[in-house]
Specification:
Elements lengths: L2 H32 L6 H17 L5 H30 L4 H24 L13 E4 L2 E4 H23 L1 H11 L1 H6 L4 H22 L12 H14 L4 H22 L3 H16 L16
Antiparallel strand pairs: 1-2
Pfam family, one: BPD_transp_2
Subcellular location: Cell membrane
Protein name: Branched-chain amino acid ABC-type transport system, permease component
């Protein structure tokens, strides 16, 4: 393999992995803080794509404004959903919380998929490009949308990390993830933290869907593949490990790109699943998990 081809594969893998990391961070934080295995995470990705599409095409917003509309829309829906569904469940269901929330999120996923199908049909709704043009590196061309999308994803993750580590509310979220009872004793409002955490998780998924609209058009069942990729990353790095989710997303992106180039279409999922199975057998806590530590800031 010549150096130019290797560079192209690495660059493509990193750009793909950046969006996986954005999705995985959202999924990881809601599991790390609330112990919710959110199987509706992909549907917020789908909603973000639809919101951005309608903002861009129907209301003629610019690219950044359309993406921000998607982020705001999924943030609000996530907050409402947490208050109307998860909060009552938390009050009534102390036992089997993970199983109950798994079933609830699975139900939410089905409702959102079919609701989108009823409202907007099975038609693919996409755009040509947010930012026209390509960046040429030797004989390799990559669209501006991919580069800008990766940049937005990395910037968002950086801002989110600063929020978790440098703000009072972020430190409260981390405290709840480590010891919910202790955080409550020192005055942290658990209801506020839970609602905010779930809403921010939905925002990150919606943002990823909006960023990729020109590459992956909006469609009612489009969230399934990003959901799988997010879970690949979480299993790889360890459940609830937000910091390592960034590295995990990049690793999965590189792994898939190398598999595709080496073995052909379809093999990227085979290789990813094979590695996940091996990790579950030999290191079930994940490659970056620390024994006895549960922290979303690792």
């Amino acid at each position: 393999m010549d150096p130019i081809q290797l560079f192209n594969i690495v660059l493509t893998g990193l750009l793909r992995g950046g969006l996986y990391a954005l999705m995985a961070v959202g999924l990881s934080v809601v599991f790390g803080v609330m112990n919710i295995p959110n199987f509706a995470h992909g549907e917020f990705y789908m909603l973000g794509a639809y919101f951005s599409y309608f903002a861009y095409t129907n209301f003629h917003f610019g690219p950044v404004s359309s993406i921000l509309c998607a982020a705001l829309g999924t943030l609000i829906i996530g907050a409402v959903m947490e208050k109307t569904l998860f909060y009552p469940l938390r009050k009534r269901s102390k036992k089997n919380w993970i199983m109950n929330t798994f079933l609830l999120t699975l139900g939410i996923s089905i409702v959102l998929q079919n609701g989108a199908k009823m409202l907007w049909g099975n038609t693919y709704r996409g755009i040509t490009q947010y930012w026209p043009g390509n960046i040429s590196i030797d004989s390799f061309k990559i669209s501006n949308d991919r580069v800008v999308g990766f940049s937005i994803a990395m910037l968002t993750i950086a801002v989110f990390w600063l929020f978790l580590n440098k703000t009072r509310m972020g430190r409260a979220i981390r405290a709840v993830s480590q010891d919910e009872t202790g955080a409550s004793i020192v005055g942290v409002n658990l209801n506020v933290i839970h609602t905010l955490t779930f809403a921010l998780s939905c925002l990150l998924a919606g943002l990823a869907g909006a960023i990729l609209l020109s590459i992956s058009p909006a469609y009612p069942f489009m969230g399934l593949q990003p959901l799988y990729k997010s879970w690949f990353v979480l299993i790889l790095v360890g459940m609830g490990n937000v910091g390592a989710s960034i590295y995990g997303g990049l690793i999965v992106g590189l792994l898939e790109t190398f598999s595709y180039m080496k073995f052909g279409a379809g093999w990227q999922d085979v290789v990813s699943l094979a590695i996940i199975i091996l990790i579950l057998i030999f290191k079930p806590r994940g490659l970056f998990a620390k024994k006895g530590v549960k922290s979303i800031s690792e």
